[in-house]
Design brief:
The protein has 2 helices and 7 strands. With 155 residues, the protein is α+β, with helices and mostly antiparallel strands. Strands 1-2-7-3-4-5-6 form a 7-stranded antiparallel β-sheet. The termini are far apart.
């Protein structure tokens, strides 16, 4: 009986450690808003893996810490700015060292240099008409990154 209790205690300890590891490495976020349509719809849940900014490349969908409310004129007409989520989901367009995408990101047209600086990212929503992103705000600080979207989990 003592052996069975020891095995059970070891299984419980291992399960607890595994759960803590997963909790620190993964996050499930719910999509709010229409900025990533048609890729992600409002209400869909997305599994996100914690990822350092240095491991990113253009084309990946990322989750970033939300931001303070920008001024009203920064939002597209008709966009609901009352429900800012703690997380935002966008597609990486450029990472440090990539050429600055001046042609597709108006807010970066007057930025000095030719390449995205260290510690900065360029992120865009898939639905430009409904996205508050680098087109309007320019660079996003890389320290706001939580991780990369791994897969949809449904609604």
């Amino acid at each position: 009986m003592t052996g069975a209790l020891a095995v059970l205690a070891a299984l419980v300890a291992a399960s607890t450690l595994a759960a803590l590891w997963l909790r620190g490495r993964y996050l499930v976020v719910t999509v709010h808003g229409e900025s990533m349509l048609p890729t992600y719809r409002p209400g869909e849940r997305v599994l996100v893996r914690r990822t350092p900014a240095g491991a990113l490349h253009a084309g990946q969908v990322v989750v970033l810490r939300g931001h303070q409310a920008p001024p009203p004129q920064a939002f597209p007409p008709g966009m609901d700015r009352t429900a800012l989520a703690p997380w935002i989901i966008k597609r990486v367009t450029a990472v440090p060292g990539d050429p600055i995408p001046r042609d597709t990101v108006p807010a970066l047209r007057s930025e000095p240099g030719t390449h995205v600086p260290a510690g900065r990212l360029v992120v865009l929503g898939d639905n430009p008409a409904r996205s508050h992103d680098s087109r309007r705000t320019g660079y996003v600080a890389a320290d706001r990154l939580y991780g990369v979207a791994v897969r949809k989990l449904g609604t």
